[in-house]
Amino acid sequence: MNDSERHINRAMLPEPTLRRLPWYLAYLKMLDLKHQEHVSSTQIAKSLNVDASQIAKDLSFLNIKGKTRIGYEVHPLTRALTEFLGFKHRHNAFLIGAGSLGSALMRDLGLMQFGLNIVAAFDIDPHIIGSAVGDIPIYDLAQLAQQQHSSGVSIAIVAVPPESAQDVANTLVASNIKAIWNFTPFRIKVPRHVVVQNTSIYSDLALMYNNMEVNVNNKNNIAK
Amino acid sequence: MNDSERHINRAMLPEPTLRRLPWYLAYLKMLDLKHQEHVSSTQIAKSLNVDASQIAKDLSFLNIKGKTRIGYEVHPLTRALTEFLGFKHRHNAFLIGAGSLGSALMRDLGLMQFGLNIVAAFDIDPHIIGSAVGDIPIYDLAQLAQQQHSSGVSIAIVAVPPESAQDVANTLVASNIKAIWNFTPFRIKVPRHVVVQNTSIYSDLALMYNNMEVNVNNKNNIAK
User: By three-state DSSP, how is residue B133 classified?
Assistant: First the structure.
């Protein structure tokens, strides 16, 4: 079923809901592997530390309702979530910056499971242009517009040094890219019709370090 | 300078502030490369789409103040942020699950720049146990407690299939691990003294897909 058949208005979907849906999906997949057929929102709630009422509300955005006393059907709900989250479709993408993080992403077959298919990479380093990581060729960044034109790819993953992020973003926008997955900590600016999704794994690292310090300080204060 | 010399209470630091600090750092590093000596909060604000007053407030948590008309000194501020965010120290870590994403993380030298040093990986697959990715050996997960005991490592990166995440987390907690960087979409449960940092790159992918759909729908509505 597509969105209009389900009467889903994606623009109305709160971001926190969208962030929780993949948690439910991961949990449901596990139940499905164990051949569990039904699950209550209470059971999901207990396992994921989310309020049961929140779960019911989140799923109601997809027009999915559990049945009284039986709960949700695991397999159909797994399929509906996979479909809704866009993980079932194949989204072709370019990767910009085939350095350390970039080539790591090119090797991450997990992305493919979630519908993202990196078809080509681009770099400015003459030592790697012309080579490949797995099956994925690395082209000169100067060829981007031409490759976009011939392939119609509309997603680009940016894994360049942060100081180059804005220049690369400008090139991408000029080359008809519609969505940028930005792995740099640099906040790029793009026109409104272009989607930017920021993923800052190094910011998460800073959060983790900070919480470790907080824990250590708490312990020391208790010991005093 | 350490936290108490700076009079910083990390427990009081709001998470949004902590998430913005690495943006400032990325931007300052770029200015530093260009040999710019001073920067105003207005200039940072314009480049990063963050309110100038917010920037001043965020930096004041670190007891850093700009000077009237001159602004912040780029190089010292870069150093103070790097230090404060924990990127300057070396944090040794174990990686659990040397599959696709896991071995990608083992190859990401960027992590090292941000202070994270993966010293060993663990898996349950007999085909890869005993091998290595780069310099990093892959051990049997059953050896975890013993390796933790001899190395004192307190951070573990979890990149296993989501259905194994909770079992692995339990093993980690029992093996004296104090912080878990969870790359699975499964919400693991741990005792309060253990830090969990979740990084869900596939949730970000779902957000990007959704925003792309919203943009397409908007365009179609305008065209109607």
Answer: strand
pLDDT of A1 reads 61
Instruction: Determine the Cα–Cα distance for residues B71 and B45; give it in Å rounded to an integer.
Output: 12
Chain A, window 103-122: residues with a beta carbon less than 8 angstroms from a chain B beta carbon: 103-105, 107-111, 114-116
Residue B201 pLDDT exceeds 70: yes
Q: How far, in Å, CA of B104 to CA of B152, rounded? A: 24
> The pTM is what?
0.85
Bridge partner residues of B197 (DSSP): B181
Sheet-wide strand order for B91-96: B132-133, B136-140, B116-123, B91-96, B155-158, B179-182, B195-198
- For A144-173, the DSSP string reads HHHHHHHH---EEEE-S-GGGHHHHHHHHH
Q: What pLDDT score does A163 carry?
A: 82
Token readout for B96 is 């659990």
A92: which strand partners?
A: A117
Task: Quick: pLDDT tens for A1-46.
Answer: 667 666 777 878 888 999 899 989 989 988 998 999 999 999 999 8
- Nearest chain A alpha carbon to B214: A11
Record the tokens describing residue A163, joined without a space: 């100081």
How far apart (Å, rounded) are the C-alpha atoms in residues A206 and B77? 17
Cα distances (Å, whole numbers) of residue A8 to A1, A64, A65, A209, B214: 11, 11, 14, 40, 11
Substitution target in A47, A85, A196, A202 with the highest count of B β-carbons within 10 Å is A202
The amino acid occupying position A72 is Y
Q: ipTM of the assembly?
A: 0.89
- Sign of the Cα pseudo-torsion (B81, B83, B86, B88, in order): positive
Q: Check CB contact under 8 Å for B23 and A163.
A: no
Cβ separation B101–A116 shorter than 8 A: no
Q: Which of residues 172-191 of A touch B (CB under 8 A)?
A: 178-179, 181, 184-187, 189
Residue B200 CA to residue B76 CA, distance in Å, equals 33
In 3D space, the residue among A72, A70, A49 whose CA is nearest the CA of residue A62 turns out to be A72
